[in-house]
Specification:
7 strands, alpha/beta
Amino acid sequence: MLNNPSFDFFLKETSKIYPVSHALWRVWEYFEILNQQFEYPLLDLGCGDGRFLSIILNSPSRKGEAGEICGIDPNSVDCNSARKSNLYKEVLCSSSHKMPFEAEKFRMVFSNCVLEHIPELEETFLEVNRVLKPGGIFFFTALSDFYPENLFYVYLFRKLKLNFLSNLYVKFVDNILKHYNCLSGEKWTELLNNSGFNVKSIKYTHSSKYLKIFDVLMALSSFQYLMAKALCKVPFPSLNRLMISSIVKNTIKDEYRLVEGANVNIVAEKVK
């Protein structure tokens, strides 16, 4: 994988637009999405500014792939940026639990690192079911319950018998990053089944070791984020690239055949 042209492309693109921990988190999402066949028309649920999906579709292994894509996101600034990307047929600024699309419009709904931020999760799943054609695919990545329990500072505080600090840290992270749903694979499956889906596959990524490195780098990422706001670009992109490449090289063996991980990748089919 480390000598894969798609990984080189990922490093080049993400190191310029994301702080280091943000880009580091995206590595395994990127490869899971690259391996997933897209069906069109496709809805990008929580499309943001569209940059990550653009990286996916312009990667060497998928370049030239074309199909009708619509985007939806509640953030009007991000929606305007997504429209300018020329990736989407249309981008609508709307909530996910009341989508302004007709029933059975899409063959696939894709959502990356979004559902953990949505309070109205059950209503969103029902809406996804409504806008999918019978047999349509719902593919998403989201946080699992492994995430808060395996952050580095949670681990450190518990080792020091400072459980109150570990609990405060989890609440701090959830508040800053607006996490509402960090659910087990079983709970994600239950919600999908109750919303008219049949889960076809579940795969975990982001090992405990990887997650702890990500957490430690959050401080540097916060600095880079503030610098990017001032400079209109992410500082130290070459350093980001070297750090991410080195971290992946030294943790890749931990990602194989995970029985639990901080991120869950689910493919579900709308029941016909």
